[in-house]
Design a protein that fits this description.
Layout (H helix, E strand, L loop, with lengths): L20 H14 L3 E5 L3 H13 L3 E6 L2 H13 L6 E5 L3 E2 L15 E2 L11 E6 L14 H5 L3 E10 L4 H14 L1 E6 L5 E6 L19 H5 L21
Parallel strand pairs: 1-2, 1-6, 2-3, 6-7
Antiparallel strand pairs: 4-5, 7-9, 8-9
Helix pairs in contact: 1-2
The structure holds S-adenosylmethionine (SAM).
S-adenosylmethionine binds next to helix 2.
C-alpha cells in the first residue's frame, strides 16, 4: 500500500467536526500535484496537519491557518509540533467578531454576522489555494460566506477555492454566489459531506483532484477506509489497529 502521508502519529479523530477522510485525501493529492506556494485555511484541525504534510513533502509552500478558538488552535499547534510540521504553518488565532462587510446572512436574522478579525489576514498575498472549513455553521447563517469577499483581491491568477460541507444547501448557495460574483467555474464532488471546488475558467487544465490509488483496488476494506491509502488510521482510539492489512 502506498503511504503518502509522512506523519508518524495519528490525526485527531475525523468526521463530526473534522474534515472527512475523502476530502483530506483529495486535498493532499491536489497539493502534491499542483505544488501551491500559499494556502489559506479557515478552520484548523486535521486538515492543517494534512496540508502541512503535503507542503513538507513538496519541499515548498506555506499554510496560513486561521482559527477562532484558542482551545482548538492550541490542539492543532500541539499536533503540528508532535510531527515537527509547525514550520510549514502560520497559525493565526482570533475570536470571531462582528462582520460589517457583504454577507448572505439576512440583516434581521436571529444571529448577527460574525467572522474572523480581518487583522488575521494581514500580509497574506498571492493565495494559490483557499480552503474554507470555518467558522462553524452555528455561528450565523452562511457563516463561511465572507472568506471570498475578504480575500478575492489576494488570490493568485489561477487560484482555486475549496469549500467543505456542500451537502448543506447553505454551502451550495455560498459556492454559487462566489462563482457568479468572482468569475469561477464551480464543480461539486459527491463526497461524504460534499466538496465545492471553484476554479478559474481560463486557468491551465489541472487534473481533477485525484484520489490516491490503494494497492488492492476495489476491496470492501478500501472502500470503507480510503484514508488508509495515505497510511492513516481514522478509527476511534479503542479500534486503532484492528481490521488492517
Ligand atoms: C469544521 S471545523 C474545522 C475542521 C478542520 N478543518 C479539520 O479538518 O479538523 C470548524 C471549527 O470547529 C472547531 N472545532 C474543531 N473541533 C471541534 C469539536 N470537536 N467540537 C467543537 N468545535 C470544534 C474549530 O474551532 C474549527 O475551526
Amino acid at each position: 500500500m502506498h503511504n503518502h502521508l509522512a506523519i508518524k502519529g495519528q490525526l485527531p479523530p475525523l468526521r463530526g467536526w473534522a474534515t472527512s477522510p475523502d476530502v483530506l485525501l483529495r486535498l493532499h493529492a491536489h497539493i502534491m500535484a499542483t505544488r501551491p506556494r500559499i494556502i489559506v485555511e479557515f478552520g484548523s484541525g486535521a486538515s492543517t496537519l494534512v496540508i502541512a504534510d503535503a507542503l513538507r513533502q513538496n519541499g515548498l509552500g506555506k499554510l496560513v491557518s486561521i482559527e477562532h478558538s484558542d482551545h482548538y488552535g492550541a490542539q492543532t499547534l500541539g499536533t503540528l509540533q508532535t510531527e515537527s510540521l509547525e514550520g510549514w504553518v502560520d497559525l493565526r488565532i482570533g475570536e470571531l467578531e462582528a462582520w460589517e462587510g457583504e454577507h448572505l446572512n439576512p440583516e434581521d436574522a436571529e444571529k448577527s454576522s460574525r467572522w474572523y478579525p480581518l487583522s488575521l489576514l494581514e500580509g497574506v498575498e498571492g493565495i494559490d489555494l483557499l480552503w474554507v472549513d470555518g467558522p462553524p455553521g452555528a455561528t450565523c447563517l452562511f457563516s463561511r460566506y465572507p472568506a471570498l469577499p475578504a480575500l478575492a483581491e489576494k488570490l493568485s491568477p489561477n487560484a482555486e477555492v475549496w469549500l467543505d460541507d456542500t451537502i448543506r444547501q447553505e454551502e451550495k448557495d455560498i459556492c454559487e454566489r462566489w462563482a457568479a460574483d468572482h468569475g469561477f467555474e464551480l464543480e461539486y464532488y459527491p463526497l461524504e459531506k460534499g466538496l465545492g471546488r471553484l476554479t478559474r475558467a481560463d486557468a491551465p487544465v489541472v487534473a481533477p483532484a485525484p484520489m490516491p490509488q490503494t494497492a488492492v483496488a476495489g476491496s470492501a476494506d478500501d472502500a470503507a477506509h480510503p484514508e488508509r491509502a495515505l497510511g492513516l488510521d481514522f478509527s476511534l482510539p479503542e479500534d486503532q489497529g484492528k481490521d488492517k492489512r
